Known about the structure:
heterodimer; A: alpha/beta; Rossmann fold; Alpha-Beta Plaits; six-stranded mixed sheet; five-stranded antiparallel sheet; 11 helices; about 40% helix; B: mainly alpha; 12 helices; about 75% helix
Amino acid sequence: MMALVQTAGLTKVFGDVRAVDDLSVSIPEGAIGLVGPNGAGKTTFLRLLLSLLRPTAGTASVLGRDIGDGLAVRERIGYMPEHDCLIPDMTGVGLVSYMGRISGLDRDTAMSRAHDVLQFVGVEEERYRKVAEYSTGMKQKVKLAQAMVHDPQLYIFDEPTTGLDPRGRTEMLDLVGKIAKSPGRNLLLSSHLLPDVETICKYVIILDGGHQIAAGDLDRLLAGASDRLRIDIRGDREGFARRLKEAGFDADVSATAIYVSRRDGIEAAVFDTAKVLGAEVRYMGRVVRSLEELFLELLERKAGGDA
Amino acid sequence: MSITLPTYKRREMPLLPRAQRVRAIITTGLRREFRRPAAIVVTGMGAALVTISSIVTVLFSRFFLPPGAKLDLSYFAVPASNGAILFFVTLMAAIIGSGLIADDLHSMALTLYLSRPITHADYLLAKAAILAPLVSMITVLPLVLTPLVAALLGLFSWTIALQAIGLSILVGALLTVFCTSVALFLSSLTRRRSIAAAGVFAVNFGLSIPAGILAGTLGNPVFYASPWDNYVAVARAAFGATDNPIDWVWSLVILLAATILAAVVTYMRMKAVEVVSG
Protein backbone atom coordinates (compact mmCIF):
# COMPACT_ATOMS: atom_id res chain seq x y z
CA MET A 1 0.00 0.00 0.00
CA MET A 2 1.34 3.46 -0.94
CA ALA A 3 2.32 5.69 1.98
CA LEU A 4 0.18 8.77 2.30
CA VAL A 5 3.15 10.85 3.37
CA GLN A 6 6.77 9.82 3.44
CA THR A 7 9.55 12.03 4.75
CA ALA A 8 13.27 11.49 5.11
CA GLY A 9 15.30 13.85 7.28
CA LEU A 10 12.79 16.62 6.66
CA THR A 11 14.06 19.82 8.27
CA LYS A 12 12.86 23.41 8.25
CA VAL A 13 14.86 26.10 9.98
CA PHE A 14 13.68 29.68 10.59
CA GLY A 15 16.69 31.64 11.82
CA ASP A 16 17.75 29.87 15.01
CA VAL A 17 14.53 27.89 15.32
CA ARG A 18 14.38 24.35 13.97
CA ALA A 19 10.62 24.18 13.44
CA VAL A 20 10.83 20.70 11.92
CA ASP A 21 13.98 18.80 12.78
CA ASP A 22 15.18 15.75 10.87
CA LEU A 23 11.73 14.24 10.63
CA SER A 24 11.52 10.82 9.01
CA VAL A 25 8.04 9.33 8.96
CA SER A 26 6.02 7.00 6.81
CA ILE A 27 2.35 7.76 7.29
CA PRO A 28 -0.11 5.14 6.06
CA GLU A 29 -3.35 5.93 4.26
CA GLY A 30 -6.44 6.59 6.35
CA ALA A 31 -7.34 9.06 9.06
CA ILE A 32 -4.17 10.39 10.65
CA GLY A 33 -3.91 12.61 13.72
CA LEU A 34 -1.13 15.12 14.15
CA VAL A 35 -0.76 16.29 17.73
CA GLY A 36 1.75 18.28 19.68
CA PRO A 37 2.02 21.30 21.96
CA ASN A 38 2.24 24.86 20.62
CA GLY A 39 5.47 25.30 18.68
CA ALA A 40 5.79 21.57 18.07
CA GLY A 41 6.09 22.18 14.32
CA LYS A 42 2.65 20.92 13.27
CA THR A 43 1.70 23.88 11.09
CA THR A 44 5.18 24.06 9.57
CA PHE A 45 4.96 20.35 8.78
CA LEU A 46 1.59 20.85 7.10
CA ARG A 47 2.91 23.81 5.12
CA LEU A 48 5.85 21.73 3.98
CA LEU A 49 3.46 19.04 2.81
CA LEU A 50 1.42 21.65 0.94
CA SER A 51 4.67 22.83 -0.63
CA LEU A 52 4.09 26.32 0.67
CA LEU A 53 7.49 26.19 2.34
CA ARG A 54 10.71 24.82 0.92
CA PRO A 55 12.48 22.42 3.27
CA THR A 56 15.91 23.40 4.54
CA ALA A 57 16.97 19.77 4.23
CA GLY A 58 15.45 16.37 3.55
CA THR A 59 12.75 15.17 1.25
CA ALA A 60 9.05 14.41 1.46
CA SER A 61 6.41 12.96 -0.78
CA VAL A 62 2.65 13.18 -0.54
CA LEU A 63 0.54 10.53 -2.27
CA GLY A 64 3.68 9.44 -4.07
CA ARG A 65 4.53 12.90 -5.40
CA ASP A 66 7.56 14.85 -4.30
CA ILE A 67 6.67 18.07 -2.51
CA GLY A 68 9.00 19.87 -4.93
CA ASP A 69 6.16 19.51 -7.44
CA GLY A 70 3.82 21.74 -5.47
CA LEU A 71 1.11 22.00 -8.11
CA ALA A 72 0.69 18.24 -8.48
CA VAL A 73 0.64 17.86 -4.70
CA ARG A 74 -1.90 20.62 -4.11
CA GLU A 75 -4.20 19.29 -6.84
CA ARG A 76 -4.70 16.28 -4.59
CA ILE A 77 -5.05 18.11 -1.29
CA GLY A 78 -7.96 19.94 0.28
CA TYR A 79 -6.72 22.27 3.01
CA MET A 80 -8.83 23.72 5.78
CA PRO A 81 -6.70 26.31 7.61
CA GLU A 82 -7.04 27.00 11.30
CA HIS A 83 -7.51 30.74 11.03
CA ASP A 84 -10.32 32.73 9.46
CA CYS A 85 -9.50 32.95 5.77
CA LEU A 86 -12.74 33.42 3.87
CA ILE A 87 -13.36 36.30 1.48
CA PRO A 88 -15.98 38.33 3.35
CA ASP A 89 -17.72 40.00 0.42
CA MET A 90 -18.44 36.75 -1.43
CA THR A 91 -21.44 34.50 -0.90
CA GLY A 92 -20.85 31.03 0.51
CA VAL A 93 -21.70 29.31 -2.76
CA GLY A 94 -19.77 31.89 -4.77
CA LEU A 95 -16.65 31.40 -2.67
CA VAL A 96 -16.76 27.61 -2.73
CA SER A 97 -17.31 27.47 -6.49
CA TYR A 98 -14.55 30.08 -6.97
CA MET A 99 -12.13 27.89 -5.03
CA GLY A 100 -13.24 24.94 -7.14
CA ARG A 101 -12.39 26.86 -10.30
CA ILE A 102 -8.96 27.81 -8.96
CA SER A 103 -8.45 24.12 -8.25
CA GLY A 104 -9.08 23.40 -11.92
CA LEU A 105 -12.79 22.60 -12.18
CA ASP A 106 -14.74 24.10 -15.05
CA ARG A 107 -17.37 26.69 -14.19
CA ASP A 108 -20.42 24.41 -14.32
CA THR A 109 -18.79 21.56 -12.42
CA ALA A 110 -17.45 23.97 -9.79
CA MET A 111 -20.90 25.45 -9.20
CA SER A 112 -22.57 22.06 -9.07
CA ARG A 113 -19.94 20.73 -6.67
CA ALA A 114 -20.23 23.88 -4.53
CA HIS A 115 -23.94 23.22 -4.02
CA ASP A 116 -23.23 19.56 -3.39
CA VAL A 117 -20.61 20.08 -0.69
CA LEU A 118 -22.49 22.95 0.96
CA GLN A 119 -25.48 20.65 1.19
CA PHE A 120 -23.22 18.01 2.70
CA VAL A 121 -21.84 20.33 5.39
CA GLY A 122 -25.29 21.65 6.20
CA VAL A 123 -25.18 25.16 4.78
CA GLU A 124 -28.58 25.46 3.21
CA GLU A 125 -30.24 28.69 2.05
CA GLU A 126 -27.52 30.66 3.88
CA ARG A 127 -25.20 29.80 1.02
CA TYR A 128 -26.54 32.83 -0.85
CA ARG A 129 -25.62 35.22 1.95
CA LYS A 130 -22.28 36.98 2.19
CA VAL A 131 -19.65 35.20 4.25
CA ALA A 132 -19.23 38.32 6.40
CA GLU A 133 -22.71 37.67 7.82
CA TYR A 134 -21.97 34.07 8.87
CA SER A 135 -21.55 32.79 12.41
CA THR A 136 -18.29 31.09 13.42
CA GLY A 137 -19.87 27.67 12.96
CA MET A 138 -21.06 28.53 9.47
CA LYS A 139 -17.67 29.87 8.52
CA GLN A 140 -16.04 26.65 9.67
CA LYS A 141 -18.48 24.68 7.54
CA VAL A 142 -17.74 26.83 4.49
CA LYS A 143 -14.02 26.35 5.15
CA LEU A 144 -14.64 22.62 5.16
CA ALA A 145 -16.73 22.87 1.99
CA GLN A 146 -14.02 24.77 0.09
CA ALA A 147 -11.53 22.05 1.02
CA MET A 148 -13.91 19.43 -0.34
CA VAL A 149 -15.03 21.09 -3.55
CA HIS A 150 -12.46 19.52 -5.88
CA ASP A 151 -12.84 16.14 -4.18
CA PRO A 152 -9.22 15.67 -3.15
CA GLN A 153 -7.57 12.43 -2.12
CA LEU A 154 -6.09 13.99 1.00
CA TYR A 155 -7.73 16.44 3.37
CA ILE A 156 -5.60 18.48 5.71
CA PHE A 157 -7.58 19.91 8.61
CA ASP A 158 -5.80 22.34 10.89
CA GLU A 159 -7.76 22.65 14.15
CA PRO A 160 -11.20 22.26 12.52
CA THR A 161 -13.16 22.66 15.76
CA THR A 162 -11.42 25.81 16.98
CA GLY A 163 -13.86 28.39 18.29
CA LEU A 164 -16.94 26.19 17.97
CA ASP A 165 -19.54 25.72 20.68
CA PRO A 166 -20.17 22.11 21.85
CA ARG A 167 -22.96 21.58 19.31
CA GLY A 168 -20.90 23.01 16.47
CA ARG A 169 -17.95 20.88 17.52
CA THR A 170 -20.05 17.73 17.48
CA GLU A 171 -21.42 18.61 14.03
CA MET A 172 -17.94 19.32 12.69
CA LEU A 173 -16.52 16.09 14.11
CA ASP A 174 -19.44 14.22 12.60
CA LEU A 175 -18.66 15.69 9.16
CA VAL A 176 -14.94 15.03 9.47
CA GLY A 177 -15.73 11.51 10.64
CA LYS A 178 -17.93 10.91 7.58
CA ILE A 179 -15.09 11.99 5.31
CA ALA A 180 -12.64 9.78 7.20
CA LYS A 181 -14.88 6.76 6.72
CA SER A 182 -15.55 7.29 3.02
CA PRO A 183 -13.42 5.17 0.69
CA GLY A 184 -10.62 6.72 -1.32
CA ARG A 185 -10.18 9.64 1.03
CA ASN A 186 -7.49 10.25 3.58
CA LEU A 187 -7.18 12.94 6.16
CA LEU A 188 -4.53 14.52 8.26
CA LEU A 189 -6.06 16.13 11.31
CA SER A 190 -3.95 18.54 13.33
CA SER A 191 -5.52 19.45 16.63
CA HIS A 192 -4.80 20.52 20.18
CA LEU A 193 -8.04 18.86 21.20
CA LEU A 194 -6.88 15.32 21.73
CA PRO A 195 -10.37 13.84 22.19
CA ASP A 196 -11.14 15.07 18.64
CA VAL A 197 -8.16 13.16 17.29
CA GLU A 198 -9.09 10.12 19.37
CA THR A 199 -12.61 10.19 17.93
CA ILE A 200 -11.60 10.46 14.27
CA CYS A 201 -8.15 8.99 13.75
CA LYS A 202 -6.74 5.50 13.59
CA TYR A 203 -3.10 6.54 13.47
CA VAL A 204 -1.35 9.40 15.26
CA ILE A 205 1.92 11.24 15.06
CA ILE A 206 3.02 13.15 18.13
CA LEU A 207 5.45 16.01 17.54
CA ASP A 208 7.39 18.12 20.00
CA GLY A 209 10.11 20.62 19.24
CA GLY A 210 10.05 19.64 15.58
CA HIS A 211 10.75 15.99 16.43
CA GLN A 212 8.49 13.00 16.22
CA ILE A 213 8.21 11.57 19.72
CA ALA A 214 5.71 8.84 18.89
CA ALA A 215 3.83 7.49 15.90
CA GLY A 216 1.68 4.49 15.32
CA ASP A 217 -1.78 2.98 15.43
CA LEU A 218 -3.79 4.75 18.06
CA ASP A 219 -5.03 1.57 19.70
CA ARG A 220 -1.50 0.20 20.00
CA LEU A 221 -0.12 3.49 21.35
CA LEU A 222 -2.87 3.86 23.91
CA ALA A 223 -2.43 0.30 25.11
CA GLY A 224 1.29 0.90 24.90
CA ALA A 225 3.83 -1.40 26.49
CA SER A 226 2.02 -0.99 29.77
CA ASP A 227 1.71 -4.24 31.69
CA ARG A 228 -0.55 -2.72 34.26
CA LEU A 229 -4.00 -3.97 34.97
CA ARG A 230 -6.97 -1.97 36.09
CA ILE A 231 -9.18 -3.67 38.64
CA ASP A 232 -12.59 -2.31 39.57
CA ILE A 233 -14.07 -3.84 42.70
CA ARG A 234 -17.09 -3.36 44.89
CA GLY A 235 -15.76 -3.36 48.44
CA ASP A 236 -12.76 -2.07 50.41
CA ARG A 237 -10.28 -0.88 47.77
CA GLU A 238 -7.62 0.18 50.28
CA GLY A 239 -7.72 -3.21 52.02
CA PHE A 240 -7.72 -4.97 48.68
CA ALA A 241 -4.59 -3.15 47.54
CA ARG A 242 -2.88 -3.71 50.89
CA ARG A 243 -3.39 -7.48 50.61
CA LEU A 244 -2.07 -7.50 47.06
CA LYS A 245 1.02 -5.62 48.22
CA GLU A 246 1.49 -8.12 51.02
CA ALA A 247 1.33 -10.84 48.37
CA GLY A 248 4.23 -9.13 46.59
CA PHE A 249 2.34 -7.22 43.88
CA ASP A 250 2.87 -3.54 43.06
CA ALA A 251 -0.63 -2.12 43.61
CA ASP A 252 -1.85 1.51 43.59
CA VAL A 253 -5.25 2.79 44.52
CA SER A 254 -7.01 5.65 42.76
CA ALA A 255 -10.41 7.14 43.47
CA THR A 256 -12.12 4.63 41.21
CA ALA A 257 -9.85 1.64 40.66
CA ILE A 258 -6.82 -0.36 41.67
CA TYR A 259 -3.83 -0.50 39.34
CA VAL A 260 -1.45 -3.39 39.57
CA SER A 261 1.61 -4.56 37.62
CA ARG A 262 0.95 -7.63 35.55
CA ARG A 263 2.92 -10.67 36.72
CA ASP A 264 2.39 -14.38 36.79
CA GLY A 265 -0.21 -15.29 39.36
CA ILE A 266 -1.86 -11.86 39.53
CA GLU A 267 -5.24 -13.11 38.37
CA ALA A 268 -5.29 -15.85 41.03
CA ALA A 269 -4.13 -13.40 43.70
CA VAL A 270 -6.90 -10.95 42.78
CA PHE A 271 -9.64 -13.57 43.01
CA ASP A 272 -8.18 -15.03 46.24
CA THR A 273 -8.13 -11.52 47.76
CA ALA A 274 -11.68 -10.90 46.65
CA LYS A 275 -12.78 -14.17 48.26
CA VAL A 276 -11.01 -13.38 51.52
CA LEU A 277 -12.35 -9.79 51.72
CA GLY A 278 -15.78 -10.61 50.36
CA ALA A 279 -15.30 -8.07 47.57
CA GLU A 280 -16.77 -8.31 44.10
CA VAL A 281 -14.45 -7.98 41.09
CA ARG A 282 -16.41 -6.01 38.51
CA TYR A 283 -13.69 -5.45 35.93
CA MET A 284 -10.10 -6.57 35.38
CA GLY A 285 -8.23 -5.65 32.21
CA ARG A 286 -5.25 -3.97 30.67
CA VAL A 287 -4.92 -0.26 31.35
CA VAL A 288 -5.90 1.77 28.29
CA ARG A 289 -4.71 5.36 28.46
CA SER A 290 -6.45 8.25 26.85
CA LEU A 291 -4.52 10.07 24.14
CA GLU A 292 -4.21 12.97 26.53
CA GLU A 293 -2.58 10.77 29.17
CA LEU A 294 -0.24 9.28 26.59
CA PHE A 295 0.61 12.72 25.27
CA LEU A 296 1.44 14.11 28.72
CA GLU A 297 3.42 11.00 29.59
CA LEU A 298 5.52 11.29 26.43
CA LEU A 299 6.15 14.98 26.97
CA GLU A 300 7.20 14.35 30.57
CA ARG A 301 9.46 11.53 29.46
CA LYS A 302 11.02 13.74 26.78
CA ALA A 303 11.48 16.62 29.23
CA GLY A 304 13.16 14.19 31.65
CA GLY A 305 15.41 12.91 28.86
CA ASP A 306 16.31 16.44 27.74
CA ALA A 307 17.14 17.42 31.34
CA MET B 1 -32.96 21.24 6.88
CA SER B 2 -32.17 18.96 3.99
CA ILE B 3 -35.14 17.35 2.31
CA THR B 4 -33.04 14.31 1.55
CA LEU B 5 -29.98 13.02 3.28
CA PRO B 6 -26.99 14.35 1.33
CA THR B 7 -24.77 11.73 -0.16
CA TYR B 8 -21.21 12.31 -1.15
CA LYS B 9 -19.19 10.00 -3.34
CA ARG B 10 -15.66 10.57 -4.57
CA ARG B 11 -15.31 11.06 -8.32
CA GLU B 12 -12.13 11.57 -10.26
CA MET B 13 -12.62 14.84 -12.10
CA PRO B 14 -10.34 16.09 -14.87
CA LEU B 15 -8.76 19.35 -13.79
CA LEU B 16 -8.28 22.23 -16.20
CA PRO B 17 -4.75 23.56 -16.79
CA ARG B 18 -3.14 26.37 -14.80
CA ALA B 19 -4.02 29.07 -17.32
CA GLN B 20 -7.71 28.37 -16.72
CA ARG B 21 -7.25 28.62 -12.96
CA VAL B 22 -5.53 32.00 -13.35
CA ARG B 23 -8.32 33.09 -15.68
CA ALA B 24 -10.85 32.17 -12.99
CA ILE B 25 -9.13 34.57 -10.57
CA ILE B 26 -9.08 37.32 -13.19
CA THR B 27 -12.71 37.01 -14.28
CA THR B 28 -13.99 36.70 -10.72
CA GLY B 29 -11.80 39.64 -9.64
CA LEU B 30 -13.08 41.85 -12.45
CA ARG B 31 -16.67 40.86 -11.70
CA ARG B 32 -16.17 41.72 -8.02
CA GLU B 33 -14.67 45.11 -8.91
CA PHE B 34 -17.55 45.94 -11.22
CA ARG B 35 -19.94 45.34 -8.33
CA ARG B 36 -18.26 48.08 -6.30
CA PRO B 37 -19.79 51.50 -6.96
CA ALA B 38 -16.48 53.31 -6.32
CA ALA B 39 -14.71 51.20 -8.94
CA ILE B 40 -17.52 51.70 -11.48
CA VAL B 41 -17.58 55.45 -10.94
CA VAL B 42 -13.84 55.99 -11.15
CA THR B 43 -13.49 53.76 -14.22
CA GLY B 44 -16.48 55.25 -16.03
CA MET B 45 -15.77 58.85 -15.14
CA GLY B 46 -12.06 58.47 -15.74
CA ALA B 47 -12.40 56.91 -19.17
CA ALA B 48 -15.12 59.37 -20.21
CA LEU B 49 -13.49 62.56 -18.94
CA VAL B 50 -10.01 61.73 -20.22
CA THR B 51 -11.42 60.77 -23.62
CA ILE B 52 -13.59 63.87 -23.85
CA SER B 53 -10.83 66.23 -22.73
CA SER B 54 -8.36 64.62 -25.16
CA ILE B 55 -10.80 64.89 -28.07
CA VAL B 56 -11.56 68.50 -27.17
CA THR B 57 -7.85 69.34 -27.35
CA VAL B 58 -7.76 67.83 -30.83
CA LEU B 59 -10.96 69.57 -31.94
CA PHE B 60 -9.50 72.88 -30.88
CA SER B 61 -5.99 71.90 -31.89
CA ARG B 62 -5.45 74.99 -33.97
CA PHE B 63 -5.99 77.13 -30.89
CA PHE B 64 -3.74 74.93 -28.68
CA LEU B 65 -0.97 74.74 -31.25
CA PRO B 66 2.20 76.49 -30.12
CA PRO B 67 3.45 79.23 -32.51
CA GLY B 68 5.39 77.79 -35.44
CA ALA B 69 4.28 74.22 -34.75
CA LYS B 70 2.54 72.07 -37.33
CA LEU B 71 -0.47 69.80 -37.02
CA ASP B 72 1.47 66.57 -37.36
CA LEU B 73 2.08 63.49 -35.25
CA SER B 74 3.80 65.53 -32.55
CA TYR B 75 0.48 67.20 -31.74
CA PHE B 76 -0.72 63.96 -30.13
CA ALA B 77 1.83 64.49 -27.37
CA VAL B 78 -0.72 67.00 -26.00
CA PRO B 79 -3.49 64.46 -25.20
CA ALA B 80 -0.86 61.91 -24.12
CA SER B 81 0.36 64.31 -21.42
CA ASN B 82 -3.18 65.25 -20.33
CA GLY B 83 -3.09 65.85 -16.56
CA ALA B 84 -6.50 64.15 -16.19
CA ILE B 85 -4.73 60.85 -16.93
CA LEU B 86 -2.50 61.30 -13.88
CA PHE B 87 -5.49 62.20 -11.70
CA PHE B 88 -7.71 59.27 -12.70
CA VAL B 89 -4.94 56.70 -12.90
CA THR B 90 -3.94 57.61 -9.36
CA LEU B 91 -7.55 57.43 -8.23
CA MET B 92 -8.03 54.06 -9.89
CA ALA B 93 -4.82 52.59 -8.49
CA ALA B 94 -5.83 53.85 -5.05
CA ILE B 95 -9.42 52.62 -5.16
CA ILE B 96 -8.96 49.31 -6.97
CA GLY B 97 -5.27 48.40 -6.91
CA SER B 98 -4.63 49.13 -3.25
CA GLY B 99 -7.02 46.41 -2.07
CA LEU B 100 -6.11 43.65 -4.49
CA ILE B 101 -3.51 42.05 -2.23
CA ALA B 102 -4.05 43.98 1.02
CA ASP B 103 -7.63 42.65 1.28
CA ASP B 104 -6.41 39.07 0.87
CA LEU B 105 -3.79 39.66 3.53
CA HIS B 106 -6.37 41.23 5.83
CA SER B 107 -8.90 38.42 5.44
CA MET B 108 -6.04 35.88 5.27
CA ALA B 109 -7.62 34.54 2.07
CA LEU B 110 -4.11 34.39 0.66
CA THR B 111 -3.76 31.03 2.42
CA LEU B 112 -6.79 29.75 0.51
CA TYR B 113 -5.35 30.87 -2.81
CA LEU B 114 -1.92 29.43 -2.17
CA SER B 115 -3.24 26.10 -0.92
CA ARG B 116 -4.69 25.65 -4.42
CA PRO B 117 -2.69 24.34 -7.36
CA ILE B 118 -1.36 27.73 -8.42
CA THR B 119 1.98 29.42 -7.78
CA HIS B 120 2.76 32.77 -6.14
CA ALA B 121 3.58 34.08 -9.61
CA ASP B 122 0.17 32.92 -10.93
CA TYR B 123 -1.55 34.73 -8.08
CA LEU B 124 0.34 37.97 -8.71
CA LEU B 125 -0.12 37.71 -12.46
CA ALA B 126 -3.87 37.29 -11.98
CA LYS B 127 -4.03 40.29 -9.65
CA ALA B 128 -2.07 42.37 -12.17
CA ALA B 129 -4.40 41.22 -14.92
CA ILE B 130 -7.38 42.50 -12.91
CA LEU B 131 -5.93 45.98 -12.47
CA ALA B 132 -4.15 46.46 -15.80
CA PRO B 133 -7.23 46.39 -18.07
CA LEU B 134 -9.00 48.87 -15.81
CA VAL B 135 -6.00 51.21 -15.75
CA SER B 136 -5.70 50.93 -19.52
CA MET B 137 -9.27 52.25 -19.83
CA ILE B 138 -7.68 55.56 -18.85
CA THR B 139 -4.12 55.26 -20.13
CA VAL B 140 -4.71 53.58 -23.49
CA LEU B 141 -8.36 53.81 -24.57
CA PRO B 142 -8.66 57.63 -24.68
CA LEU B 143 -5.33 57.95 -26.49
CA VAL B 144 -6.48 55.44 -29.09
CA LEU B 145 -9.91 57.03 -29.52
CA THR B 146 -8.51 60.55 -29.88
CA PRO B 147 -6.59 60.09 -33.19
CA LEU B 148 -9.42 57.90 -34.43
CA VAL B 149 -11.95 60.69 -33.90
CA ALA B 150 -9.49 63.23 -35.29
CA ALA B 151 -9.11 61.20 -38.48
CA LEU B 152 -12.88 60.65 -38.77
CA LEU B 153 -13.41 64.42 -38.48
CA GLY B 154 -10.79 64.99 -41.13
CA LEU B 155 -8.51 66.96 -38.82
CA PHE B 156 -5.57 64.60 -39.39
CA SER B 157 -4.68 62.16 -42.13
CA TRP B 158 -5.30 58.47 -41.54
CA THR B 159 -1.56 57.83 -41.85
CA ILE B 160 -0.82 60.13 -38.91
CA ALA B 161 -3.82 58.83 -36.97
CA LEU B 162 -2.75 55.20 -37.34
CA GLN B 163 0.80 56.07 -36.29
CA ALA B 164 -0.63 57.92 -33.29
CA ILE B 165 -2.81 54.93 -32.38
CA GLY B 166 0.21 52.60 -32.43
CA LEU B 167 2.32 54.95 -30.34
CA SER B 168 -0.58 55.56 -27.95
CA ILE B 169 -0.84 51.85 -27.27
CA LEU B 170 2.89 51.70 -26.51
CA VAL B 171 3.11 54.71 -24.20
CA GLY B 172 -0.23 53.86 -22.59
CA ALA B 173 1.00 50.33 -21.93
CA LEU B 174 4.14 51.73 -20.30
CA LEU B 175 2.11 53.81 -17.85
CA THR B 176 -0.28 50.90 -17.28
CA VAL B 177 2.41 48.40 -16.32
CA PHE B 178 4.17 50.96 -14.12
CA CYS B 179 0.98 51.88 -12.23
CA THR B 180 -0.10 48.24 -11.92
CA SER B 181 3.26 47.09 -10.63
CA VAL B 182 3.61 49.91 -8.11
CA ALA B 183 0.00 49.61 -6.89
CA LEU B 184 0.41 45.86 -6.29
CA PHE B 185 3.73 46.44 -4.56
CA LEU B 186 2.16 48.94 -2.19
CA SER B 187 -0.84 46.67 -1.67
CA SER B 188 1.45 43.78 -0.70
CA LEU B 189 3.12 45.85 2.01
CA THR B 190 0.10 46.20 4.25
CA ARG B 191 -3.10 44.53 5.38
CA ARG B 192 -4.98 47.84 5.16
CA ARG B 193 -6.02 49.08 1.75
CA SER B 194 -6.22 52.68 3.02
CA ILE B 195 -2.49 52.68 3.75
CA ALA B 196 -1.72 51.28 0.31
CA ALA B 197 -4.01 53.90 -1.24
CA ALA B 198 -2.14 56.63 0.60
CA GLY B 199 1.07 55.17 -0.80
CA VAL B 200 -0.30 55.39 -4.35
CA PHE B 201 -1.10 59.07 -3.87
CA ALA B 202 2.34 59.64 -2.34
CA VAL B 203 4.12 58.01 -5.29
CA ASN B 204 2.11 59.80 -7.98
CA PHE B 205 1.24 63.23 -6.58
CA GLY B 206 3.74 63.30 -3.73
CA LEU B 207 6.63 63.06 -6.18
CA SER B 208 5.18 64.91 -9.19
CA ILE B 209 4.01 68.09 -7.49
CA PRO B 210 7.21 68.76 -5.48
CA ALA B 211 9.28 67.96 -8.59
CA GLY B 212 7.39 70.66 -10.52
CA ILE B 213 7.94 73.16 -7.72
CA LEU B 214 11.59 72.32 -7.05
CA ALA B 215 12.61 72.20 -10.72
CA GLY B 216 12.73 76.02 -10.73
CA THR B 217 15.43 76.08 -8.08
CA LEU B 218 17.18 72.70 -8.37
CA GLY B 219 17.00 72.34 -12.14
CA ASN B 220 15.27 69.97 -14.53
CA PRO B 221 16.94 66.73 -13.31
CA VAL B 222 14.50 66.85 -10.38
CA PHE B 223 11.84 65.68 -12.86
CA TYR B 224 13.51 62.26 -12.95
CA ALA B 225 12.12 61.70 -9.45
CA SER B 226 8.56 62.10 -10.75
CA PRO B 227 6.98 59.07 -12.44
CA TRP B 228 4.50 61.28 -14.25
CA ASP B 229 7.19 63.58 -15.67
CA ASN B 230 9.19 60.56 -16.76
CA TYR B 231 6.12 59.21 -18.54
CA VAL B 232 5.44 62.57 -20.19
CA ALA B 233 9.05 62.78 -21.38
CA VAL B 234 8.78 59.33 -22.99
CA ALA B 235 5.34 60.07 -24.48
CA ARG B 236 6.44 63.40 -25.93
CA ALA B 237 9.56 61.84 -27.42
CA ALA B 238 7.50 58.97 -28.85
CA PHE B 239 5.22 61.42 -30.67
CA GLY B 240 8.20 63.44 -31.89
CA ALA B 241 7.80 66.48 -29.63
CA THR B 242 11.21 67.95 -28.97
CA ASP B 243 10.84 70.38 -26.08
CA ASN B 244 11.50 67.89 -23.23
CA PRO B 245 13.05 69.13 -20.01
CA ILE B 246 14.61 65.70 -19.37
CA ASP B 247 16.17 62.97 -21.48
CA TRP B 248 13.44 60.48 -22.48
CA VAL B 249 15.91 57.58 -22.58
CA TRP B 250 16.73 57.95 -18.91
CA SER B 251 13.05 58.44 -18.15
CA LEU B 252 12.22 55.19 -19.92
CA VAL B 253 14.99 53.37 -18.07
CA ILE B 254 13.77 54.74 -14.74
CA LEU B 255 10.14 53.76 -15.40
CA LEU B 256 11.04 50.26 -16.58
CA ALA B 257 13.50 49.72 -13.73
CA ALA B 258 10.94 50.88 -11.16
CA THR B 259 8.30 48.61 -12.72
CA ILE B 260 10.54 45.54 -12.69
CA LEU B 261 11.90 46.28 -9.22
CA ALA B 262 8.38 46.70 -7.81
CA ALA B 263 7.28 43.43 -9.42
CA VAL B 264 10.28 41.47 -8.13
CA VAL B 265 10.03 42.90 -4.62
CA THR B 266 6.29 42.17 -4.56
CA TYR B 267 6.95 38.56 -5.54
CA MET B 268 9.60 38.15 -2.85
CA ARG B 269 7.40 39.89 -0.31
CA MET B 270 4.49 37.56 -1.06
CA LYS B 271 6.63 34.47 -0.58
CA ALA B 272 7.80 35.83 2.77
CA VAL B 273 4.30 36.86 3.90
CA GLU B 274 2.98 33.34 3.51
CA VAL B 275 5.63 32.02 5.86
CA VAL B 276 4.50 34.15 8.75
CA SER B 277 0.76 34.45 8.20
CA GLY B 278 -0.17 31.03 9.54
